[in-house]
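Q: Structure tokens for this one, please.
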Amino acid sequence: MTPLLSVEALHVGYGRAFVVHGIGLHVDRGEMVALLGANGAGKTATLRAISRQGVHSQGVVRFDGADLARLGAADVARLGIAHVPEGRGTFGDLSVLDNLRVGAILRRDAHGVARDIERVHELFPCLAQHSSRPAGALSGGEQQMLAVGRALMMRPRLMLLDEPSFSVAPRVSQEIYELLAHLRRTDGLTALVVEQNADLALSCVDRAYVLESGSITLAGSAARLRDDPAIRQSYLGY
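A: Here is the predicted structure, written as tokens:
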């Protein structure tokens, strides 16, 4: 089966300095994959290279067979790739409801958008309760939920999530990962998740790659990485 996302010999840099060095990875349809590593390992740069946001890159990135190299960020979004950036990226001055509408800005099916807003409210009841509030007035955990909900409004074929547990209470982080796992089971959600909290990510994903200093040093099933004490101590830090 051809992967939905395929990355080969990818180098990524900011300015003239490369921070990712020739990595390869893939994500199959309906699969959740984690990209693990310490701060500065190149995880965020990898996601930005895939979504074509603010980095320069060399190598091959294909999404459902399409070469992303010559596309802009808006074109990548139109293909169905939703990027939830680190720090959430919500529009603080807009209401919660308007943030969700922004997530559907490329869609033209008004009735479908309305139904999906209702579904996001069902998935995240706190967003329904605070629908008219400015997004900037929400707690950190609520803003993270809003960022995920806004991405879901795209009806994405692939979600890229950058540190969804960042600055979020452990209970809320667990809820977000459990929701993602639920969406994979019910909707066939496909996701590539960047995460420093290896223990949390490995409890929900199918496979993982470990990135160190811009290179992939380890890859395998979540169960293998989670259950091998030597791997945990040497690569995952717990």
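A few notes: The CA atoms of residues 30 and 189 lie 5 Å apart. The longest helix spans residues 170-187.
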